[in-house]
Amino acid sequence: MLSTAALGSITAPFVLLAVVQYPIYGWIVGNALRPEKSRLGIWLVLTMHLVSLVLFFLIPNPGFRR
Fold first, then answer.
1. C-alpha distances in angstroms, 43 versus 8, 15, 55, 63?
2. Each residue of 2-43: pLDDT tens digit?
3. How many helices (H) and strands (E) does the chain have?
4. Which of 10, 23, 56, 59 is the most exposed place for a label (fewest CB within 10 A)?
């Protein structure tokens, strides 16, 4: 969504990022849920999503407005 808001379209590097993102998130969360690990990974993923959400609302894009 940030790619579309900033550039007006989804470019190939962002498609690759989207494909790679989910296995990385799965690895981070999976490791964070192990009893001997801290929950830092979950907090990092949550923080990245919240920052992305704020940026999305700050970057004006008429395509996502009513």
1. 30, 24, 18, 31
2. 777 677 778 888 889 889 988 988 888 888 888 777 778 788
3. 3, 0
4. 23
